[in-house]
Write a structure and sequence with these properties.
single chain; Immunoglobulin-like; five-stranded mixed sheet; 552 residues; 3 domains; 11 helices; binds zinc ion; eight-stranded mixed sheet
Length: 552
């Protein structure tokens, strides 16, 4: 019996309609004990909630000679509620010197990295106000950038300073004072970085001006005209040389600016132009228009492997295909493209434009980011290649902890958010069985949640609604548990018996199997079901589904 997908979808919808509640879901702890400081860092506290971030002007001088920084951040905000204590964050050993509002010096107190500022002026709902935070010190040195953040004070091969900041997870308060929580982004931002006159700073957005100062320094003013995540704000200082290119994208011309150290210039000219074109061709096709045309696109040489800094993607992948010349899928296809250019640029859509409100939902960044590698492979090398790539990445999955972390304590989930999350998306694509529809949903996500912060439920519900398939038990299974569903089956003459085990109780994901070489859909639940098939058939579960098959 061959069941068409339309029937499959209809049947699934009707099953779902008759179930009064969604699939059972369990929240697993990440096995960590949290402190009050974790709560202050990860919660939208009363002291954060009452004000909406509008604009930052971060103005910092960097002194490479003693690895120190000094500066100020002007924070413009809209008053949402009448309250007069404001939380900003700055991590030790950096210190806030003073805070001003309307030139009045304000009192503040610290609890760990949280700084509580007592405002004098009455905060009227709807008003836009500004505070200016002055700070200085020697920021934490990055031990293993970008995973363990801070500042990297390096030298290039010609002994020039080669400095960069990274802070995802640790938080931007590692090097500048800010509202260090993902739920709120400024609408725009000016980044002014002062460096020794022989060096160049590259930050996010477009370079507005370079000001020559009297003390042998220069100030680089970069303006970001779109909302930006704190952790995407970055400083890269070096003996950079610049060249540019243009990409003709879906919404017009994307200005591509490349900043590299001189020794890489000749190879970068060829390599970046070619690889960035391949990246945009594939990613705009699948995800829709690049979300930051106004702010341009950049690749910036750095001393670490790379990071998705918004409109300023940092690059240190050796100008070679793969991830530091390695194929993360071991299928061979991972050596057909530059992992960092594809993966980090994909975060412009998922991570930078669409940002999870809580770090616990970081899968929204990394699962789509990791799946972009498969979509890139699909676009350039076809379906079979991309299938081999995504299946190959399963070897990286640990199933140690759930993908979704613990909420309100700045705790991300398992690193499985990369390969397992991508395999979940690939599995969902199989259930839809319609690549055009799947692509439409990806582009719909980009459009619908453009430049916003979101919860996992918003993303899950959007995909289910647009697909017209209730996928809640699939999300619950793969994002909230560590168990990979097992399809148990047995054949007796012409009767195929099957059921899901190792799953949440109401798991009812449809599955494509080959029976004697013919594709059919089956609709297992956790109860045994039977289906009449040809006698003694050969049964092969479609390997694109991330499940385990067990022939009893
Ligand atoms: Zn990533």
């Amino acid at each position: 019996m061959k069941i068409t997908f339309k029937n499959a979808a209809m049947r699934l919808i009707s099953v779902v309609l008759f179930l009064t509640i969604n699939c059972y879901s369990t929240t697993y702890s990440q096995n960590k004990i949290y402190t009050k400081l974790d709560t202050l860092r990860g919660t939208v506290t009363k002291e954060r909630k009452w004000w909406d971030l509008k604009f930052y002007h971060l103005n910092v001088s960097v002194n490479p000679e003693d690895s120190s920084i000094i500066g100020k951040n002007s924070v413009q905000y809209k008053v949402l509620d009448d309250y007069n204590v404001m939380q900003v964050d700055l991590q030790a050993p950096l210190k806030i010197d003073k805070v001003l509002q309307d030139n009045n010096q304000l009192e503040f107190s610290n609890e760990g990295n949280a700084c509580f500022i007592k405002l004098i002026k009455k905060q009227k709902v709807g008003e836009i106000n500004e505070i200016v935070i002055f700070y200085k010190g020697k920021p934490k040195i990055a031990v293993n950038p970008p995973w363990s953040g801070g500042v990297s004070w390096k030298k290039d091969s010609e002994k020039n300073h080669y400095i960069s900041t990274t802070c995802q997870g640790d938080g931007a308060s590692l090097w500048w004072p800010c509202k260090d929580h993902q739920y709120d982004k400024p609408d725009s931002m000016l980044i002014s970085i002062t460096v020794p006159e022989n060096l160049v700073d590259v930050s996010n957005g477009r370079l507005r001006s370079i000001v020559t100062n009297s003390n042998k320094t220069k100030t680089y003013n970069w303006f970001v005209s779109n909302p930006i995540n704190n952790y995407c704000v970055n400083v890269n200082i070096g003996n950079y040389v610049h060249f540019k290119d243009k990409y003709r994208g879906e919404k017009g011309i994307i200005d591509c600016d490349y900043y590299v150290i001189p020794e890489n210039l000749e190879k970068a000219k060829k390599y970046f132009k070619k690889e960035v074109k391949r990246m945009f061709d594939a990613l705009e096709f699948w995800f829709g228009p690049y979300p930051f045309y106004e702010d341009s696109y950049k690749l910036v040489d750095v001393s670490y492997t790379g990071m998705e800094h918004q409109s300023s993607v940092t690059y240190g992948n050796l100008y070679e295909y793969g991830y530091r010349k390695k194929d993360v899928s071991k299928s061979g296809w991972g050596l057909k493209f530059d992992f960092i250019i594809v993966h980090e640029s994909s975060h412009e859509w998922f991570g930078n434009s669409i940002t999870s409100q809580d770090l616990a939902d970081m899968w929204i960044h990394e699962s789509f980011g990791a799946y972009s590698e498969t979509l890139f492979t699909d676009y350039h090398f076809g379906k079979k290649a991309s299938s081999e790539y995504i299946i190959g990445t399963r070897a990286n999955i640990k199933n140690d902890r759930p993908i979704i972390g613990d909420y309100n304590v700045n705790q991300e989930g398992s690193k499985d958010m990369y390969s397992k999350g991508a395999n979940m998306l690939h599995t969902i694509r199989q259930i839809m069985n319609d690549d055009e529809k799947f692509r439409h949903i990806l582009r719909g996500l980009s459009k619908n949640f453009c430049h916003q912060t979101v919860t996992t439920r918003q993303i899950e519900n959007f995909i289910s609604t647009e697909a017209k398939i209730d996928l809640s038990c699939v999300f619950d299974q793969y994002l909230r548990t560590i168990n990979i569903p097992v399809i148990e089956y047995s054949v007796s003459e012409d009767i195929l018996r099957f059921r899901w085990t190792n799953s949440i109780p109401t798991f009812n994901m449809p599955l494509k199997v080959k029976v004697n070489g013919k594709d059919i859909w089956i609709y297992p639940t956790t109860e045994w079901k039977v289906l009449k098939v040809e006698s003694d058939p050969e049964i092969i579960v479609d390997p694109n589904f991330y499940v385990t098959a067990k022939n009893l």
